[in-house]
From TrEMBL:
Domain Sigma-54 factor interaction: 364-590
UniProt KW Transcription regulation keyword: yes
Keywords: ATP-binding, DNA-binding, Nucleotide-binding, Transcription, Transcription regulation
Keyword Cell inner membrane part of the UniProt annotation: no
Residues making up the signal peptide according to the UniProt record: none
InterPro entries named among the record's database cross-references: AAA+_ATPase, AAA_lid_NorR, GAF, GAF-like_dom_sf, Homeodomain-like_sf, HTH_Fis, P-loop_NTPase, Sigma_54_int
Protein name: Sigma-54-dependent Fis family transcriptional regulator
Length: 672
């Protein structure tokens, strides 16, 4: 686990600077949502043990490992669908930071019932033995003092390490948990990292807290759909990062809610803010905000908070009354294709939705020949009841393309509903897609659910990662596509449905068919037109794409990229494609700050490590490496490593030193 601090640094670099992290810790410990004052850990743990004893659990007891039944778990997942869908991607990012450290990431509901886990296979086996699996409850009442249950009881981030656990059976664990609050400050769940106590690392808690806050911000962005959401911070470069404050107001200016960082910056508790308005908090009527966004190219707003502190602010996706004029990311809507493509080119964020709305085939056509051919083909089939299958590596823009297909189709006024088959637990896919009737399974909630297929009626349905759909559901999906009828779970009635279908996958469906993992009849129904999005490394329009990203993410500031960095970008192989590029650019822009030029020192270490070999290759005199004309950069890199290894008698450390890269990079390049 020794490299968790590097991972921590990497994540915090993604999210903001070290200052921000320190500030975040201050925010978290200030507990603006909860009301619990800071209590020294040992007192808190003593109290938790007293509570546990009060529940009558003997310390030596074998805990209750029985998970909920499948149907009841489905119901819990359904009840926590919002939490789960916002937490799942954050959990993946968190897991990437702690991968191979014998830890697992756990999400529970408000009662400590596990609804989702991600973890290292070896630890998962051990974890199974103490039932860290979906459907098992880790409340204090059930397992005594443990980070999840105690975080819920204390409404505060909690570390429970080794013999601080109440039950003897759990003392081999170390757990760091943070409660997740909803927009009104109520605990809705817990995010936790649990591992073997020998692998304890003091930075884990900070990672968990930051991740919980990311989930809270996303819950916040998804709530109050019609509200005016103001992002603000005293430093403009923090807008768009985890540290920005967000507050929402009714169109009349009444305060509705604020994110955790928003509350901290406003310096008032939620209860006191309920009596406030935009004007009492920022000294301007809300109409002034509207007027600002009616101007041709509104930049950031400067506002003075009631406390006297000046902040920079912007509104995402502001809907102005009496006009269809909309703003994305606080920039004026620019009528030319370039501006819209710039918006389309940005990475996932709270502005993702507004950017998606701007996505269109024309805007995605940024000069790469292969993409141009794809777009030409798509234009010919749009609106003709032909299923489209998009293939391509992760992050190549499959979902953005599906949205663009919808936006350019005659169905554009209808809904665009995207379902990621890989991110929904298998038990939930069926009800998520097909819906269910009242009482379809034990204790099902009063009102049924119409399901995603019917939600897309009259519009487009996008099934991402279709290769991850379980076989039994593939048969059901095929029936729906053939009969154009949906029968919700527990219902005997079929409902007619009319959707345009686009699917995407980064797996080879033909290979899956050969292994009987994918139905061939469904495949032939889905592949009316198959298009492949090229990986970023093969695209010839990288310069244009980067220019657009700089424009879209610069918040009105014109950033440039130093020529040597641009050269590195051209030779890098971008395994995460657009997703990696947009994240890197966003971080680099924050790091560059007032410099406005992205240079080497603004780039994350892992990226620099990855490109170090490329730099060495570029600097090598021509002819020094005898390679054929068709050799790729990777071939040259590999050859260079082999030559250097031979020169250093196979010593990896010496080779890494000589080439200026880490030992890990050498291993990774040799055994990809
Ligand atoms: N042409 C593009 N220009 C700039 N950014 C893009 C482009 N295409 C996609 N992006 C951005 O890259 C990120 C990933 O895109 P998207 O989710 O569409 O990829 P994907 O192929 O569906 O990924 P996955 O397979 O992992 O689901 C998004 O933030 C998106 O806005």
């Amino acid at each position: 686990m020794q490299d968790i601090s590097d991972k921590h640094a990497a994540l915090s670099a993604q999210l903001g600077t070290r200052d921000q992290l320190v500030r975040l810790r201050a925010i978290a410990s200030k507990e603006t949502h909860g009301t619990v004052p800071a209590i020294p850990d040992n007192i808190m743990i003593e109290q938790a043990h007293e509570r546990s004893a009060g529940y009558g659990i003997p310390k030596s007891a074998t805990p209750d490992y029985n998970p909920l039944g499948r149907a009841d778990l489905t119901l819990v997942l359904e009840q926590n669908r919002m939490l789960h869908s916002h937490a799942a991607p954050v959990m993946e990012t968190l897991y990437e930071q702690i991968i191979n450290t014998h830890n697992m990431v756990i999400l529970t509901d408000v009662h400590g019932l596990i609804i989702h886990t991600l973890g290292d296979a070896d630890f998962l086996e051990k974890a199974d033995r103490v039932a860290l699996t979906p459907g098992v409850t880790w409340s204090e009442q059930s397992k005594g003092t443990n980070a999840i249950g105690t975080a819920i009881a204390e409404k505060a981030p909690t570390i429970i390490h080794a013999d601080q656990h109440y039950l003897d059976a759990n003392r081999f664990l170390t757990c760091s948990a943070a409660p997740i609050f909803d927009v009104m400050g109520n605990v809705v769940g817990v995010l936790d990292v649990t591992g073997d106590q020998r692998n304890f690392h003091k930075h884990t808690m900070a990672l968990v807290r930051m991740s919980a806050q990311m989930i809270e911000n996303q819950l916040f962005a998804a709530a109050y759909q019609d509200a005016i959401k103001l992002s603000f911070h005293s430093r403009p470069e923090f807008l768009g990062t985890l540290m920005e404050g967000i507050a929402s107001f009714t169109p009349g200016g009444r305060f509705l809610s604020a994110s955790r960082s928003g509350l901290f910056q406003l310096g008032l508790p939620m209860s006191a803010l309920q009596t406030h308005t935009f004007s009492s908090l920022f000294g301007l009527p809300i109409s002034a905000l509207m007027d600002h966004y009616r101007t041709a190219s509104p930049g950031l707003l400067e506002l003075c908070m009631h406390s006297g502190v000046r902040v920079y602010a912007k509104c995402s996706d502001l809907r102005l009354p009496n006009t269809s004029f909309q703003h994305a990311s606080g920039n004026a809507r620019q009528p030319d294709a370039a501006a819209a493509a710039a918006a389309a080119a940005s990475a996932p964020s709270s502005h993702e939705q507004s950017k998606a709305r701007l996505s269109s085939l024309r805007y995605l056509n940024t000069g790469d020949e292969h993409v141009a051919v794809v777009i030409d083909k798509l234009k010919k089939v749009i609106g003709r009841d032909i299923s489209i299958l998009i293939t391509g590596e992760t992050g190549t823009g499959k979902e953005l393309l599906a949205q663009a297909i919808h936006n350019d189709s005659p169905r554009k006024a209808g809904p665009f509903v995207a379902v990621n088959c890989a991110s929904i637990p298998e038990t939930l896919i069926e009800s998520e897609l097909f819906g269910y009737e009242d009482g379809a399974f034990t204790g099902a909630r009063k009102k049924g659910s119409i399901g995603k297929i019917l939600q897309a009626n009259g519009g487009s349905l996008f099934l991402d990662e279709i290769g991850d759909m379980p076989l039994n559901l593939q048969a059901r999906l095929l029936r729906v596509l053939q009969e154009r009828m949906v029968t919700p779970l527990g219902s005997s009635k079929s409902i007619p449905v009319n959707v345009a279908l686009t699917c995407a996958t980064n797996r080879n469906l033909r290979d899956m068919i050969a292994r009987n993992e994918f139905r061939d009849d469904l495949y032939y129904r889905l592949n009316g037109l198959v298009v492949r999005l090229p990986p970023l490394r093969d695209r010839t329009d990288l310069d244009v794409v980067i220019e657009k990203l700089l424009a879209a993410e610069g918040n009105g500031i014109h950033f440039t990229i130093a020529p040597e960095i641009m050269q590195l970008f051209r030779v890098h192989n971008w395994p995460g494609n657009f997703r990696q590029l947009t994240n890197l650019m966003r971080t680099a822009m924050v790091m560059a700050g007032a410099d406005h030029e992205i240079r080497m020192e603004h780039l994350p270490d892992d990226f620099l490590d990855d490109v170090a070999l490329a730099v060495a290759v570029l600097e090598k005199p021509a002819g020094a490496l005898a390679m054929s004309d068709t050799a790729t950069l990777e071939d040259v890199e590999l050859s260079m490593i082999q030559q250097s290894l031979a020169a250093h008698d196979g010593n990896v450390s010496a080779t890494a030193r000589a080439l200026g890269v880490s030992r890990n990079t050498i291993y990774r390049k040799i055994h990809p």
